[in-house]
Amino acid sequence: MTAPVTTQTATAHFADINPATGEKLADIASATPAEIVGAVATARSAWSAWRALDVEARCAILERVAASMAQHADELADLITREMGKPRAEALQEAEGYAAHGLEILEEVKLALAPQAFESRRAETVLVREPHGVVAAITPWNFPVGMPVTILFPALATGNTVVFKPSEHVPMCGALLARLFQEALPEGVLTLIQGAGDVGAQLVAADVDMIGFVGSRATGQRIMASASDGLKRLVLELGGKDPLIVFEDADLDRAAESVARHSLRNTGQVCCSVERVFVAENVAADFEKRVVEHARAWKHGDGFDESVHMGPMVSEEQRAKVVEQVDAAVRDGARLLLGGRAETGDGFFFPATVLADVDTSMKLSADETFGPVVSLTTFSGDEQEAIALANDTPYGLGANVWTADRERGARVAQGLQAGQVGVNRYLTSGSGTPWVGARQSGFGFLGGIEGHRQFTVPKTISTATPESPEA
Ligand code: ADP
What we know:
Aldehyde Dehydrogenase, Chain A, domain 1, Aldehyde Dehydrogenase, Chain A, domain 2, 15 helices
């Protein structure tokens, strides 16, 4: 774990803040340019031995990491709640759930790397998949264990070495996770560097072969621009502005419950939060009431208080963005039905908020909010109008549709430009399915056999058959 240091030295530091109290947990030293270059060089020199192990051997080592994560789930959960604020029970679910998910990833990677044979009269060809080399893993703070797991396990199991930069909001959680990997892995296979966006940018520009990134669209665009220099491989999982459509025949109460849960969960700080709800106008009044009833139950407070459903927002800046969007929407005619006002006092709290009559021209409807806000807009009830409204965004992560008519559900799902669609339920990413951001919600994708293969490049080896007529 990175030790707290004084600010007397020339090294730059950043503050690790508990968002529930505003209290400084630690000063963390940012990696210097020389340390970033050194970390990449270490990863590069560890690569040949790591890639030379077969996939079974690498997976056996990584199984020990998953077991160790499960053993340290309580410690990880404490750090998650202290550093980014989510309720402790959810933090524990994340730590335990993603330790188990790590094991699933390893089984999928074994399938993903299985060689494929192709035969012709002239040659026997085998298709193998080779690791890229050194992967920069750059992750966000909203799932401080979950998001790193989705990159680190496939990157390492496929034979790459890694330089890992966790978010500057969760450095101690990142450091503990890195230690659990390092205790099981050969030296140099995973190196940790700490720092904010400037450190991330230097890592991307360093001698890495691939960047595995989960974060905002704006940062993804910067990474892509920088990576063009070396034609570095990319997997970018970015934000969203997920729509949810409610037709007049929908089960309104279940839909309202889902809207509240998936707009407010993790204080709305989820890339696939429901951010735009389109409700058929003849059920809009009824639906509003039901949403408010459900949302009212979402109590906020310190994540260590067992009675709360939402913690604080991760930072004052994040909260200020939400305040700005909500205030502007109300000024421009949206009806505030619940919440809407940031709390004074320590901690970056913002209550469960419901707004109706949100116009699609408002910033609240266009930009990712990433806060605990339900945004309701009515539409005529027409299918094509609903699809057009839902697709009116550059994003394409998740989308949801609620209707009693299964055929309509299937038609609308087909028309939605999104990587994942839920019909009469939230998105389901079962084991083995990829996590896809279509359009500007991603570039490449993570998860499932296809996702894991993106940490590799295919290679064909063709051997002449004895009867082959040509060289
Ligand atoms: P968020 O703060 O919403 O998680 P960001 O995209 O800002 O989204 O941050 C995600 C991760 O990307 C963090 O680890 C952050 O430090 C890192 N990061 C921010 N800017 C850059 C950049 N220009 N290049 C590389 N990494 C960056």
